[in-house]
Write a structure and sequence with these properties.
single chain; 5 strands
C-alpha cells in the first residue's frame, strides 16, 4: 500500500485535540484510505528512531498523498502544509465546518467536516474518495504556490483567482448537499441512480466549463 501522511494537530494525551484527531483518523480517514490503497501515517505513529522533525519533513515530501486537517489553526500544521505545497504533489485539505478557511489557502478546495454529525461524516468520506480517485487519474491539485506561478498566465492577481475558485467549490458543496438529501428519500433504486447520474453530470459540466474559461484566458494572454 502507498503511504498517506496525515498532517493534523495532535496535542497531549487525553486532550480534546488528540481525541478529535484520533476520531478523524479512525472514523473518516482510515475507512476511505484503506479501500483506496493507502496506509495513513501520523507523526506520533512513526516508529523509526532519529530526529522526528527530519522524518516528518521526509514524509511530507515523499508521500504519494498528504491529508491536512486545518482545524484549530495549528502553526505546525500550516508549516508542514506549506512544505507540501512547494513540492507540487497531491494533497487534500480538511477543516471543521464551523471554522473559516484561512485567507492564504482560501482558493484551495477544502472539505468541511462536522465529526458530531453522521451525515457530515458520510459526506466527507464520499468526497475524500472522489478526490483521491481524481488524483489517481492524474488531476493536479492547485496550491497558493502554483496559483502565484500562474499569475502571468491569467493576467490577474492570485486573490481574484482564489475568490473565483471559492465560488465554484461552494456550488459543488450545494450539489453534494442535494445528493445527501435525495439519498435519504425513500425512492426506487432506479430513480436514485438517475438522480446520482444527473448530479454527477452537472458537476462534470461545471468542471468542464471552468477548464474552458481558463484555457481561453491562457490562450488570449499568450497571443498578447
Amino acid at each position: 500500500m502507498k503511504d498517506c501522511f496525515v498532517i493534523c494537530p495532535i496535542g497531549e494525551d487525553q486532550s480534546d485535540i488528540r481525541k478529535r484527531s484520533d476520531q478523524l483518523l479512525k472514523y473518516v480517514l482510515n475507512p476511505v484510505l484503506s479501500v483506496m490503497g493507502y496506509n495513513p501515517i501520523r507523526a506520533d505513529s512513526m516508529p523509526k528512531p532519529g530526529v522526528i522533525t527530519t522524518q516528518i519533513i521526509n514524509m511530507i515530501v515523499e508521500s504519494p498523498l498528504v491529508i491536512a486537517d486545518l482545524t484549530g489553526g495549528n502553526p505546525n500544521v500550516f508549516y508542514e502544509l506549506a512544505i507540501r505545497h512547494v513540492t507540487g504533489k497531491p494533497y487534500i485539505q480538511i477543516i471543521d465546518k464551523e471554522e473559516q478557511i484561512p485567507f492564504d489557502v482560501l482558493g484551495v478546495r477544502t472539505i468541511k467536516l462536522d465529526l458530531n454529525d453522521l451525515d457530515s461524516v458520510e459526506k466527507v468520506k464520499k468526497e475524500l474518495k472522489r478526490q483521491i480517485e481524481e488524483i489517481k487519474k492524474g488531476h493536479k491539485v492547485d496550491s497558493p504556490v502554483s496559483m502565484a506561478l500562474q499569475e502571468t498566465v491569467f493576467g490577474s492577481d492570485g486573490n481574484a483567482l482564489s475568490v473565483f475558485l471559492e465560488k465554484f467549490w461552494d456550488i459543488e458543496d450545494k450539489l453534494e448537499h442535494i445528493d445527501i438529501v435525495t439519498s435519504q428519500i425513500d425512492v426506487s433504486s432506479e430513480l436514485e441512480d438517475i438522480l446520482d447520474y444527473r448530479l454527477d453530470k452537472l458537476t462534470d459540466d461545471l468542471v468542464e466549463r471552468l477548464t474552458h474559461i481558463i484555457e481561453q484566458k491562457a490562450t488570449a494572454n499568450n497571443d498578447n
